[in-house]
């Protein structure tokens, strides 16, 4: 059966006993691996590897030994407790080998965990697991972590006393990092606060957070909003060398200036507006963007947004104008506006 995100999280946290198997698939191998680790840990408990209650195999090996999966599912170990077979890197090419083994599954056999990449909805593996009455198909997508997932990571790390502002900063950080990097940051925070019973504060988060995410792009947006036109050329050259497309620059600039406009338009002032931004502003940029919004003002920011949107539409049209030159000219015009 196909599980929705909330159902999938419950399954990962507390796998149902005596079920046939779980297919976990998605384009981000790290996200898939993290969910697979959670599932196996919660399904098997501690010591599964040492007690030989977990069998690992590559899907590609089933071509040479088609019976390997069936044998592993039926095998009985010396140690009591639940058993699992983990089949890695499955594609629809391996579909027949895997589904034939699962057709013979009986209560008491090992739970089969299969991971794969971007499997097609019409492919044999997905269709089999989605229609199976006691197996599960779970797609892992590149969405930002939900608040429940963030809190679950914090809880597992023993971080229960958290200042509300620090929680906002963590939510912003989770939206800028992939889940694996965020988990490493939480582990670092846990060690940082070891033996310290006080609340986790924004300063603690700042001390443990990665130095920067997309630092050059952030520098470009801040230089534009702060009127430092002379810095734009070198920054754009670095971004172009990294393969950043002009349309991505236009989207990032639009998002930045929309946040500034929202903050500048807030009836309680830019400081309150920045705190209310969705998605949350990264904690390292919050004070800086508050100053930018105050300096620009709502009316001037509306003019700036018109310029950015016009450039974005031109980039997406059939215009033969050099795209990077077009976005560079727009950013320079914005920087000169900020400097006035």
From TrEMBL:
SUPFAM superfamilies the record matches: post-AAA+ oligomerization domain-like
Gene Ontology CC: DNA polymerase III complex
GO process annotations (BP): DNA-templated DNA replication
First-level EC class: transferase
Keyword terms: DNA replication, DNA-directed DNA polymerase, Nucleotidyltransferase, Transferase
Transmembrane segments: none
Gene3D superfamilies attached to this UniProt entry: 1.20.272.10, P-loop containing nucleotide triphosphate hydrolases
E.C. number(s) listed in UniProt: 2.7.7.7
GO molecular function, one term: DNA-directed DNA polymerase activity
Catalytic reactions on record: DNA(n) + a 2'-deoxyribonucleoside 5'-triphosphate = DNA(n+1) + diphosphate
InterPro entries, A to Z: DNA_pol3_clamp-load_cplx_C, DNA_polIII_delta, P-loop_NTPase
Top-rank taxon: Bacteria
Family under the similarity heading: Belongs to the DNA polymerase HolA subunit family.
Protein name per its UniProtKB record: DNA-directed DNA polymerase
Source organism per UniProt: Maritimibacter alkaliphilus HTCC2654
Lineage: Bacteria, Pseudomonadati, Pseudomonadota, Alphaproteobacteria, Rhodobacterales
């Amino acid at each position: 059966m196909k599980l929705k995100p909330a159902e999938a999280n419950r399954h990962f946290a507390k796998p149902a006993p005596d079920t046939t198997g779980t297919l976990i698939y998605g384009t981000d191998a790290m996200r898939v691996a993290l969910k697979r680790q959670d599932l196996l840990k919660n399904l098997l408990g501690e010591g599964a590897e040492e007690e030989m209650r977990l069998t690992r195999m590559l899907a590609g090996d089933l071509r040479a030994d088609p019976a390997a999966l069936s044998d592993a599912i039926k095998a009985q170990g010396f140690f009591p407790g639940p058993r699992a077979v983990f089949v890695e890197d499955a594609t629809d090419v391996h579909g027949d080998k895997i589904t034939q083994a699962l057709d013979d599954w009986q209560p008491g056999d090992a739970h089969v965990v299969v991971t794969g990449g971007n499997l097609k909805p019409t492919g044999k593996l997905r269709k089999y697991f989605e229609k199976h009455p006691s197996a599960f198909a779970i797609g892992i997508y590149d969405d930002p972590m939900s608040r429940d997932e963030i809190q679950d990571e914090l809880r597992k790390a023993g971080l229960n006393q958290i200042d509300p502002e620090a929680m906002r900063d963590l939510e912003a950080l989770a939206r800028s990092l992939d889940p694996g990097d965020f988990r490493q940051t939480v582990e670092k925070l846990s060690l940082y606060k070891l033996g310290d019973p006080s609340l986790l504060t924004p300063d603690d988060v700042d001390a443990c957070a990665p130095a920067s995410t997309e630092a050059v792009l952030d520098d470009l947006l801040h230089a534009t909003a702060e009127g430092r036109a002379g810095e734009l050329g070198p920054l754009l050259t670095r971004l172009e060398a990294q393969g950043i497309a002009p349309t991505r620059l236009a989207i990032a600039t639009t998002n930045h200036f929309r946040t500034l406009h929202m903050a500048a338009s807030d009836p309680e002032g830019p400081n309150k507006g920045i705190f209310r931004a969705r998605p949350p502003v990264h904690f390292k940029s919050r004070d800086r963007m508050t100053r930018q919004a105050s300096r620009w003002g709502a009316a001037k920011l509306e003019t700036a947004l018109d310029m950015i949107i016009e450039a974005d539409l031109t980039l997406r049209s059939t215009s033969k104008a050099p795209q990077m030159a077009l976005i560079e000219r727009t950013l320079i015009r914005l920087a000169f506006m900020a400097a006035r």
